[in-house]
Amino acid sequence: MTRPFLSALFGFVLCVCRAATGEAATAHAGQVVMGTVLQITVVADDPSHARRMTIRAMEIARHWDDVLTTWRPEGELARLNAAAGKRPQPITADLASALTIMSQLSYATDGAFDPGVGPLVTTYSRPRAAALTPTPATRIREALKVDGTTASLLGGAALDAGGIGKGIALDAIAEELRAAGVSGAYLDFGGSSQLAFGTMENGAPWTLALAGLELGGSHGLMRLDGALSTSRSRPLGDETGPIVNPYTGRVVAERRFVTCYATSATQAEACSKAFVVLGWAAYELPRRTGWEALYEDADGLHVSSRFASMISGGSVVRASRYDSIAPNKMRK
Question: What are the tens digits of pLDDT across the range 253-269?
Answer without folding.
Answer: 999 999 999 999 999 99
